[in-house]
Amino acid sequence: MTATLAEPEAPAADAPQPARRRRTPITWVQRGGLTTLLFLVPTLVIFGVFSWTPIVEAVVMSFQKTNLVTAPVFVGWSNFEAVFRDPVFWIAIRNTGYFAFLALIFGYPLPLVAAVLMSEFTRMKGFYSVLAYLPVVIPPVVSVLLWKIFYDAGPTGVFNSILGWFGIPPQPWIQDATTAMPSLVLEATWAGAGGTIIIYLAALTSVAPELYDAAEVDGASIWGKIWHVTLPQLRGILFITLILQIIATAQVFLQPFLFTGGGPANSTTTILLLIYQYAFTNSLGVGVGKATALSLMLAVFLAVLSIVYFRVTKRWSDN
């Protein structure tokens, strides 16, 4: 005689559900909320002191006239008006936009082209990756000082000597207002392209080889495979690097500061360099109000740009 196991009865559909326990401060403490808060307090204090406190003080100082010694005087929007009246401010905006334009035209597609070419190599791919990333390892100040020697305008300069082999006369490079900004973009592209190349190489490994095989069966050339397969598959990565490059070019400071100091004739003065000049060039503390006002305007611009970026990427993810 075999015994049969009775199946458990399913709860009735109209059976009352157990009431959820109402959250109160006492239940929050009982569930470990106080312990969690105690662990968070040091992080919140450090983040507030070293991140938000300077931001709040900068906002306050943008509405004050101060030399960092005597008591500050509230001047309202005078610092912002002084920045807008400064003709160098508009020159700095134009130069920063010019730097960003050249960096996007020449410096943005170069890492992608290099990554695609390197991905085709089956041998010594690691060596080429290390070679591409090597400029990123070099300290930025060392890179600028090294390229400053290369940009020697004399006939014995490194770059001018190479041009002389092909019968090209010496170029002024950073000593001329016309060629100074392109020269800065060239060095910045060389210094920062390695990290982007590594990102693209990693992204290319996620592209299914079957897509290239299908494109080859359809008779696509190498440029056709890049246009119809590679670029669509890397759309998200390309957009992220584009936004990051725009943000980085809006804050360019090191190259114009060390190469030319903003010259010749303010042809390489950027927004961040102008902020430095306001605060430290004439007399320490005299232009702090203008510097913080311009910093606040730059921060608002980058914040708006970041919001647009997040909105666009969210729309892509929803689709």
String of helices and strands = HHEEHHHHHHHHHHHHH
Radius of gyration: 29 Å
The N- and C-terminal alpha carbons lie at a distance of 62 Å
Task: Tally the beta strands.
Answer: 2
Average predicted confidence as pLDDT: 82
Q: What does the main sheet amount to?
A: 2 strands, antiparallel
Low-confidence stretches: 1-6
Tell me the quaternary state: single chain
Shape: flat
Structural class of the helix and strand makeup?
mainly alpha
Spatially, the strands of the biggest sheet line up as 1-2
Number of helices: 15
* Fraction in beta strands: under 5%
Percentage of residues in helical conformation: 55-70%
Q: Could you give a short description of this structure?
A:
With 319 residues, the chain is an all-alpha fold. The protein is built from 15 helices and 2 strands. Helix content is 68%, strand content 1%.
Give an account of the 3D structure.
It is a single chain. The protein has helices at about 25-30, 35-60, 80-85, 85-105, 110-120, 125-135, 140-150, 160-165, 180-205, 210-215, 220-235, 235-250, 255-260, 270-280, 290-319; strands at about 65, 75. It is mostly helical and about 325 residues long. The protein has a two-stranded antiparallel ribbon. Helix 12 (about 235-250) runs antiparallel to helix 15 (about 290-319) and helix 14 (about 270-280) runs antiparallel to helix 15. It is flat and about 65 Å long.
